[in-house]
TrEMBL record:
This is DUF506 family protein.
Length: 292
């Protein structure tokens, strides 16, 4: 078919004027078109360069993706595995308290759940009491924040806190105890990489405020990256400022107030019922208040 077309145009060459006043042969134009189709080596090299460039961009994006998640994973590992002496002691005491509470079926005092183990409010109070009995300056803290330019929605959060001032050369150390730590960062539409970070988080966190701040930064950066890759909006309750306000903002401290010294110094009074009155009277040096 191509041969017939070639012959036809060679037999009837037609010249047409171009814009510059010169005449261009129509046969030369047509044959130039067919030659471009028959020998696309130059064009193919251009297309090949474009494809190679696209492949290079895809590889670069993939490498950046892997590098980001690997970096977050290693940063999280390093933050979790470093521990000071006060963190170790408070963590051990918290674990022992939880173990003890799991052994006993204690009723929930606020009537929200059947037992203490199912109620975070009662669980916090029981652990706080045990830490106080061990001599720690423990308290239940409730942080509250209002809507602002940095935090789009208001909220509040409760957690345990231990203030340590055993080292007189340093400032008071704040140790945060969060009994539901992992769940605070879980997401419904999480990627495989984000869930890998979640599995490294402890269920119960015990650590200094400085360590917690680093972990929040890591997880919030990962959450932002996760939602961006899915082309979805990041909720304001997932942002860094909001998460920091939960544990690192202004709080109301609620702790068990010890009895005043005046009550501790009072002599103990012996009491007895009418059934034991004669018996107690025969004991020298004891004076009892009879209860009717």
């Amino acid at each position: 078919m191509c041969t017939a077309i070639d012959t036809e145009f060679r037999m009837f060459p037609v010249s047409v004027p171009n814009s510059g006043g010169l005449f261009v042969s129509l046969s030369d134009t047509v044959f130039g078109f067919w030659e471009d189709l028959r020998d696309p080596s130059e064009n193919s090299s251009i297309y090949g360069d474009l494809l190679d460039e696209d492949d290079g961009n895809l590889c670069s994006m993939e490498n950046n993706h892997k590098a980001f998640w690997e970096e977050q994973y290693h940063l999280l590992q390093a933050s979790l595995y470093r521990s000071s002496s006060i963190e170790t002691r408070v963590g051990q005491a918290t674990r022992e308290a939880l173990k003890e509470l799991n052994m006993w079926d204690m009723q929930c005092l606020c009537r929200r759940e059947l037992n203490v183990k199912s109620c975070l409010n009662c669980l916090r109070r029981e652990i706080c009491d045990r830490l106080l009995n061990l001599g720690y300056n423990s308290a239940i803290c409730t942080s509250k924040w209002r809507t602002s330019s940095e935090i789009q929605i208001s909220g509040e959060h409760s957690y345990l806190e231990v203030m340590d001032n055993s080292n007189t050369k340093r400032e008071v150390t704040k140790v945060v105890i969060e009994l539901n730590f992992r769940a605070e960062f879980e997401m419904a539409r999480a990627s495989e990489e984000y869930n890998r970070l979640i599995t490294r988080l402890p269920e119960v966190f015990v650590g200094k405020a400085e360590r917690l701040r680093v972990i929040i930064n890591i997880m919030c950066s990962a959450a932002k990256k996760n939602m961006k890759e899915k082309k979805m909006h990041l909720g304001p309750w997932r942002k860094q400022r909001y998460m920091q306000a939960k544990w690192l903002g202004m709080t109301d401290r609620d702790m068990t107030v010890p009895l005043p010294t005046v009550y501790k110094s009072r002599p103990r009074k012996y009491k007895a019922s009418m059934l034991t009155c004669d018996l107690v009277e025969n004991i020298p040096g004891h004076h009892c208040v009879v209860l009717c």
